[in-house]
Design a protein that fits this description.
It contains twelve helices and 16 strands. The protein is α+β, with helices and mostly antiparallel strands. The chain has two domains: about 150 residues, Creatinase/prolidase N-terminal domain (Creatine Amidinohydrolase, Chain A, domain 1); about 280 residues, Creatinase/methionine aminopeptidase superfamily (Creatine Amidinohydrolase, Alpha-Beta Complex). The strands form five sheets. A six-stranded mixed beta sheet has the order 4-3-2-1-5-6. The protein is globular, with a radius of gyration of 24 Å.
């Protein structure tokens, strides 16, 4: 059954307005303006980069592909939307929308952002959230992107509304369909490029609609964490396949990784063990727990797998403490997910923006917050055979606990990552990704 987006959105926009009321009052503003964004052009050229909407804008309205729109909000009043709908025979323009969300706005078509001037409130009391300062500075805005206001929004964006959760579930379903198509292409012996195309076709996304560049990696390429290229020809032997690719719905994203082996070999067994470990990590998430604790849990699991597969000797805790696991799992366990793939607010202790100190053992984590109900995270443990990190490990005393011949066996497979999208509930979690794969497989 499809979600009732009309009623979910009604509650969502009410929640967005309440949040804006609080954020404006706390920061001494009377009005909020949110610009959808402007096109950016290649240097010395008239070619625009693909448009990426201001993420604040798409949280208010499900419009992701139209620059030069402006939301104008004053607490207690119906928000206004200046909607860019120019006369232009070069480009497709957007007719003024009439959908489930439009009754919540007073919509005025404009041929350019400057036409929105007629709708402006007292700009001396207005805060603007916009990538570009103009024309808002010229119009006398009190502040453009004031930090206190942005921090207030970002802190609260961590908790998703019912509408946002529904959008994230849809994004997971689209992503799962495309992942299944990509797996089929891998099993058929396709090149990385053809797998990428199979993914886009099944998602019905073009390259600019995927929420981040697809990572489509065969064999050793799976050891390159953000492998950004696609070989046009298939390798002589495709042993393994790592795909990290998402989808978007109303501007909300999924971020999904799967790893496959061609043969039933030790690498396939390792994928199965990582899959079990990943599910255990998802199950460990609880309201009240610091998200960074999951990083330590993940390292213990990775240590257990290294021992089980004869790659390292010793106790799990020792392999974590002496840096062995960091050589095989060198990234964070996950991040907030929402309107932004790496969603905001993960490092703030409060709505004022007080930073949470970064744990010494994990200086690069993106999410340090205490886990709460309706927070949405990725959980994405990995285990890779990355030549440069393995060389460093080999040069340390901890390297003596590693069976380097065993490492050589696994190296041609590149590595494993498994990534699901998880919503935390009062007594556990909801996994968006697993049921999406089941549903997509049954279609
Ligand atoms: N796809 C980027 C990430 O997993 O964070
Ligand atoms: Mn990912
Ligand atoms: Mn991710």
């Amino acid at each position: 059954m499809s979600p009732d987006f009309a009623s979910l959105y009604t509650d969502h926009i009410a929640a967005m307005r309440r949040l804006a009321d609080q954020a404006l009052a706390a920061n001494g503003f009377d009005h909020l303006l949110i610009h959808s964004g402007a096109l950016n052009y290649a240097f010395l050229d008239d070619n625009a980069y693909p448009f990426k909407v201001n993420p604040h804008f798409k949280r208010w309205v499900p419009v992701t592909d139209n620059p030069e729109c402006l939301i104008i909000y004053t607490p207690g009043e119906t928000p206004k939307l200046a909607f860019y709908s120019p006369v232009d025979f070069w480009h497709k323009t957007h007719p003024v929308p009439d959908e489930y969300w439009t009754a919540h706005f007073e919509i005025t078509p404009v041929g350019g952002i400057r036409e929105a001037k007629a709708l402006l409130p007292d700009m001396k009391r207005a805060a603007v959230i916009s990538e570009t300062a103009e024309p808002f500075a010229e119009w006398g805005a009190a502040a453009i992107n004031p930090e206190g206001l942005i921090n207030h929004f970002h802190f609260h964006f961590a908790k998703k509304t019912g509408y946002e959760l529904a959008c994230l579930r849809e994004a997971s379903l689209i992503g799962a369909r495309a992942h299944l198509a990509a797996e089929r292409a891998f099993r058929d012996g396709a090149s990385e490029f053809d797998i990428h195309l199979a993914y886009l076709r099944a998602a019905e996304h073009n390259e600019h609609q995927v929420p981040y560049s697809n990572i489509i990696a065969l064999n050793e390429h799976a050891a390159i964490l953000h492998y950004q290229y696609q070989e046009r020809r298939p390798p002589a032997e495709a042993r393994s396949f790592l795909i990290d690719a998402g989808a978007s719905f109303n501007g909300y994203s999924s971020d999904i990784t799967r790893t496959y082996a061609r043969e039933r070999n030790d690498f396939q067994h390792m994928i199965e063990r990582m899959n079990e470990a990943q599910l255990a990590m998802c199950a460990a998430l609880r309201p009240g727990m610091p998200y960074a604790d999951l990083q330590t849990i993940a390292h213990r699991h990775v240590a257990g797998i290294l021992i089980e597969f004869g790659i390292a000797r010793g106790e799990a805790d020792e392999l974590v403490a002496n840096g062995t696991t960091r050589a095989f799992f060198p990234h964070g366990i996950g991040h907030y997910l929402g309107a932004q793939v790496h969603d905001v607010g993960g490092k703030q202790a409060d709505e004022k923006g007080t930073p949470i100190p970064q744990p010494e053992a994990h200086p690069f984590l993106r999410t340090l917050r205490t886990v709460d109900v309706d927070h949405v995270f990725t959980v994405e443990p990995g285990l890779y055979f990355i030549p440069s990190l393995l060389e460093q490990l080999r040069a340390t005393p901890a390297g003596r606990q590693v069976d380097w011949q065993r490492v050589e066996y696994f190296r041609p497979f590149g590595g494993i990552r498994i990534e699901d999208n998880i919503r935390v509930t009062a007594d556990g979690h909801e996994n968006f990704t697993r049921p999406a794969f089941e549903r997509a497989a049954a279609e």
